[in-house]
Model the fold of this input.
Amino acid sequence: MAATLRNVTTYDLRLAAPLALGFVVFFITPLVILLALSFQADPQGTHYGLTQYVNFLGDRFSLGVLGSTLWLGVKVTLLTLLLGYPVAWLHQRAPSWAKGIIMLLVLLPLLTSVVVRTFAWVVILGRQGIVNAALASLGLIDTPLKLLYTDTGVVMALAQVQMPLMVLPLITALGRIDPNLADASSVLGAGHWRTFRKVTLPLSLPGIIAGCLLTYAAAITAFITQSLIGGGQMLFMPMYIYQQASTLQNWPFAAAISIVFLVAVLVVVSIFNVLGRLSRGYTNA
Amino acid sequence: MLLTRRNLMQTALTLGAMHAFPGLTWAQARPLVFATFTGSWEEAHKAVLVPAFRKATGNADMVLDPMLSVDQIAKVTAAKNNPPIDVMLHDPGPALQAVAQGLVEPYPVEKSAYYKDLIPAAQEPSGPAPFFQVVGLTYNPETVKTPPTSWADLWKPEFKGRVGITNLNSTLGTGFMVELAKMHGGSESNIDPAFKAIEALRPSLAAVAANPGQLATLFQQGQIDISPGNFNAIQILKARGVPVEWVAPKEGAIAFKTTIHIVKNSPNRELAFKLIEAALSPEVQATLMEEPYLIVPTNTKVAMKGEIAKALAKDHAEIAKKFVFQDWAKINEQRAAWIERFNREIRV
Done:
């Protein structure tokens, strides 16, 4: 061994071995078991087949749940992008003392648990909550608006809860843009809006895509926020899986739903990835 | 290299010793594990049941491992021959599942000192019921001036947009639906009337909670003023100063047995039996009946006192009269279909 030249690159792989092992034991194995389980035709596992998948894909209600979950993700992602981009932009333009404060404000939500943040939203959106109390004292409404247990409420709460996942990649992306480019653009006669549209926005695309990906994945799987703000009958995929696995002990169907959900999410993620590759080409051009 | 050899030797020796003295292995030597429920159940059991068990067994080792019924079943199913739990606690639905899956040892009734003193509904040979949960009507006394007296009051026009219910994932939600069916001519096997009744209730519904715990939050936030509710959950809210009251409707409060079971193949069978005996004993049940636990006793030797006597029943004869027990074996048969139907039909 000592006689031959050591190949230094092999060390990298061996260093990753503990993580890889953990990955195989705690992620790949359960996933394979989940997949096997989803092919059971009944909870007892007497025979195997595609029954569970046929049940799910042939059922308009179940497909509706899948659709509304994916759509929820889209709405939340768009809202976080809309609200998060100005924050990231502000961070970029702010003097360094303000940068620290903005960063702290962005990170602060991550330091409390999702449950706590979500309960805060229950208090904000409730009938006697902050929103309704403020609107009522301004004389804008007579009867309290229903915000809790509505679609709007879920989107709002999720957007705030997942905001750091959007803002952090955006800050990184905007930070990498050479400030001289904006100056150059205005010297050449472009206004603020045109500079933003033609220079800043395209160059920040990788950050937008990374942020959207993270926010989207987090929003559609956010079991706690979805059920606390959405209530017992806005059924999204995580709750649907929980209901089948936990209350009904119908593990094969729950497994099949999980696999379908996983595949659907993977499709969305690969769309994002393709967009990401395209945008890299764009920014390098 | 030396290190590895030493490790190897140690491992080999340990394995050898474990074979020579099977008492050393973890399965035999571990303390009694009681999977109670989380929250107020755990608090009550830690404070009252565990000390009573220690006293009865001369300080035998035991551990509380609180988890949901579903998790208990999953854990025991995963290791049937060497279960990590010795005593399980279950609501009626999961209890039947555990029994049907052969996870439960029959209770040694003839050895038990207290079994025969339990009210008839609590005498289950697969695992007796040391506790009850009772579901009635919860309301906010600040907004509901005349206390409700019947389940039918939920349909009153003045509660339009103020009623909360839970979906059928919970024992509470399912039990409530069965009661509605019975009120309108249905039964455990004919749920149709309940769905019609819920349909009529729709304009009144302010919220369909995902679990009974959410109902508590909704009361706190003023989101709802009236709902079916668990007696014990309301006591906790009341103690925190939330304006809520609980009444048993005149049709009878829905009672769920919480049953306690010895797990099949448990290495601590004898201790498990002693723990359950302690849970059935009048001393433990009398203490658990007091503030702040207010758990309804099932042992007829315990005289009803305090808040329980006031709000629920003066004695065990009244329990039999005022409480409605449901046939969960029948309910379980169709519960999946009901949940599915509720998912589809009930949209506010």
Observations:
- Residues 60-93 of chain A form the longest helix (34 residues).
- Chain A is about 75% helix and 0% strand.
